[in-house]
Amino acid sequence: MSEIGANVLLIEEDTALHQFWSLLIQKIHPKSHLTVTTNAEDAEQLISSALESASPFSLVISNLFLKGEMTGLELWKLFSESEILFPQFIIVSSVPSTEYERLLSDEKRKPLFVRKPLDPNFCGDLISKTFFEIFQRTQMQKT
Question: For residue 39, what is the DSSP state?
Fold first, then answer.
């Protein structure tokens, strides 16, 4: 990931947050590519297509509540079975963290959680750590 950018998918209805995440990701890793959609059904198709291609998403940032039939957590669950190419998920919501934990009480692995209102410093640190972990995982898969 140091030579090439991370492939990131953002699922968010609020266009102001598109710019927030785009600027944050570009500041942390300028060679990253951000794809944006507003609903889970389009995101499911994008993730599936990317998994079949040579450039799967490394990171998916999704609002908890989305347009369409699925939530961000339901979308995460669809892809959480894949160990090898599974992208890291960050779920964003204004629900309290205790409610988020309750929603995932049966899950062993859990997506990362960011509570609204968004704190640029916290989000930047989380994205930096996540990119570093993705880079490490990618390097381990190559060996």
Answer: B
